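Technical note accompanying the year-one report. For the benefit of new consortium partners, we illustrate the data format agreed upon in the data management plan: each record pairs a sequence with a structure-token string. No post-processing was applied to the example shown here.
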Amino acid sequence: QVQLVESGGGLVQAVGSLRLSCAASGLTFSSFAMGWFPQAQGKERPFVATINWSGDTTYYADSVKGRFNISRDNAKNTVYLQMKSLKHGGTAVYYCGDGTRKYWGQGTQVTVSS
């Protein structure tokens, strides 16, 4: 059974930083591209960052370029999202998912205060 477990969310000021983690099990983690997908209440779940299986290729949504950094540790079956300069209005549940969006975690709440 595939499990993705996010952690690291919380309350952060708009100028603050936060690091999210997603621990994977039940799949050959190093074979999967992974990504982070925030979902604000009532909104869609777009990608903000993805990383290929080896970690040497990353993609970012224009809205987060220069502020977010995705990385992975295949030895630990974990993918990370380092976020800085979070913007007010950036409050969302951040989901970890595989590159095909077949597998999802339960999400971790990120609340950005002004």
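Partners are asked to follow this layout when depositing records. The two ends are 40 Å apart (CA to CA).
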